[in-house]
Request: fold
Amino acid sequence: MNSQAPNLQVELPSDRISRRSFLKFCGLMVATLALPARYIDTVSKALATASRLPVIWLEFQDCTGDTESFLRAAQRASPLDPGQTSPSIIDLLLDTISVDYHETLMVPAGEMSEKSLNDTLQNYAGQYLAVVEGAIPTADNGVYCTIRGRTALSIAQQVLPGARAVIAMGSCAWDGGLAAASPNLTGATGVKSAVPGLANFVALPGCPANVVNLAATIVHLLAFNELPPRETDGRPYFAYGEEIHENCERHDFYEEDQFVRAWGDQGHRSGWCLFKMGCKGPRTKSNCPQVKWNDSTCWPIAAGHGCVGCTSPHFWDQLTPFYQELPDD
Ligand code: SF4
Ligand code: F3S
Reply:
């Protein structure tokens, strides 16, 4: 990262990011964080003057789904201006951060990539944001995931303690996710148990994690100099404070006992409740109904599929079979 990287104030207004888009972005972030609208001013001033936050993005035992989620937010159709060719969430997010190291996306390879990592660690000690994607295998001294001959575990132990904040991006980085599902032969686990004692840790589980929640977390860090309030397991309340079931657009059908009973039946075509088809919305906390996916255009239940509970602890083991109705509590 260039330590003199321009901040938003220098860049705005520009052809790429208008003042209007910037303020819309701030409004979306404040709404996502469930803050009163008066904080738009606080957030916009903080982002306009903040230097870019250096980011080290580590990718371990994963499918790169969270990186895909991150990149997909770069689609030009944006929730900021649906249907318009305006700056997207990621355009604006990338003006607040500098992704200095990302094994999948970076141009340098081999020794040069290692130099990028070491330069950031050295030049921005205590200032960089560490994002972890993927689980960390711990069995047999972590040998089941290595990068340049080093185990994921040793890289995490080197990088995470010196970060300003650590974000576990996605379910695998949170609690091991799919990699930790039974029988978990590699001893896969999440960031917090692999590297205990991290002070500034936040988890954004999901399979994958939603980039709007990533953006809101970073905005909160920059605007208030701290991570958003969160549960002891690291999940921030703004994104994981309420059950999907309570905010679901099909909830009235649930209350009226109007259930889909077979894929494609009349109830399914009419948008009725998916509980009998295995929906795990009543056991899952997430802001999916509000934030949605694909540029805020849709989300799983709106698309006609039940929630599989991908933001819940150990959902691969605890919420399967996915198409089986939840038992009574
Ligand atoms: Fe609840 Fe799922 Fe039915 Fe929505 S579709 S009301 S989350 S059970
Ligand atoms: Fe995951 Fe359920 Fe949302 S499956 S993406 S938490 S609707």
Summary: The chain has 16 helices and nine strands. The CA atoms of residues 42 and 319 lie 41 Å apart.
